[in-house]
């Protein structure tokens, strides 16, 4: 729903960088995808009201102002993290938020601008909260990428002390970069922050520190792989299996921790960082402008976007999609592991073991101390269906990604289908939706691992999870025009009702474990915005 400005006025506002909101919620875009169309969501007004109500709950539960002198203008998204504080942080300092949380908050506040109005009908802006999150982004920068670096520390400390920082995680910074570019479209860049310049600076840092370049064998072609963060470049990127204060991990599965894989780390990758739509937005916005290695090996925004997309699609198609050489014939669901690592064939020496830049495989479980079965479709890769759908919204002609998303959609359709019914679907805890799956679609019910922080063996159980249901609902929209369209529409309508009523909230479970409501409720809200067509891109 555009504001009532003429084209000339919009052009003048864009040039002047004024704070005239241009994409007020609900800004509906026709992506030629399915949308919920039953009685509860049959009109834009109904979809708007449901999402606005959910957002207000989300905001009340998770968007916080830190306590302390001079911090009233800051905001942070409150939520637990699976990572651990840095060793140099003061004893007792906890992680209360992170770059992932900040990126989610920035995306949501810029998308939801216009959802609140005062008694006179005037918009109560989300901009103060957005700017509060920007202030937090600026306060906590990665300590690894050098002076003036724009990458954010993945962790935010409970004392809100900017000296207590960490390294970066690509997904958080990519979301922040996109949100800043959206903010320029929404409010202009003539206020407290130059959103446009900040977006470009952030993206330039991502292109420099979070993309690993490699050459295709026997070809002059290059690709860019999203690495695990600026930390993966440290110490030459070596993966040392028996590093006492680091990996302590059997990467190649030979039963020993004796090898060093020199330079391997920058070639490991996490599919939840494979955010093709983000790269596509910057590519089309800045096209031929240089963004990486501008003095030695210039790459434009368009080249970076294309080389990253080709790499992501190639990794999935060649190593995780049934039908490719060496890929199990049962990997037909579009699922991918939480982490992906280079293959480690025999060869080399203990101090310089062999590994491949081009050939990859799913990571072993508990990779880099993650408390999940990281060889499976679990808590990280659960976000892949959402990111694939956003890529299709940015580029509707990306048939490779569409086919991938449709595979996941069909898997979700099967999981939600009520057995022995014709067209009934159940996304709730009484249905069959789980919270971790093997790549062949088999549900995983438990996982046992050694928790280094607790110094003991822990067993996790996986039941139904709201965010897994929400993420499987997202790609259903891609089945428009497919033989399953009627079934997908019915499942999508059921999914809308499920998400509308699913809100975990903050806090802990009776056993003392974290509910992780921030993560579950954030993904559910993004799913609702996406299937309703109420997301937009610069």
Notes on the protein architecture:
This protein has 538 residues and is of the alpha+beta class. The chain has a single domain (44-532), classed as Glycosyltransferase, CATH 1.50.10.10. Helices cover 35% and strands 10% of the residues. The chain is built from 13 helices and 16 strands. It has helices spanning 7-16, 44-62, 99-111, 127-139, 170-187, 195-209, 276-286, 301-319, 384-394, 399-416, 466-473, 485-501, 517-531, and strands at 63-64, 76-77, 95-98, 155-157, 211-215, 222-226, 239-240, 260-261, 290-292, 299-300, 340-342, 348-349, 352-353, 360-362, 446-451, 456-461. The chain has a two-stranded antiparallel sheet with strand order 1-2. Strands 3-4 form a two-stranded antiparallel ribbon. Strand 5 and strand 6 form a beta hairpin. Helix 2 runs antiparallel to helix 13 (517-531), helix 3 packs parallel to helix 5 (170-187) and helix 9 (384-394) packs across helix 10 (399-416). The longest helix has 19 residues, at 44-62. It is globular.
What distinguishing features does this structure have?
538 residues; Glycosyltransferase; two-stranded antiparallel ribbon; 16 strands; 10% strand; globular; 13 helices
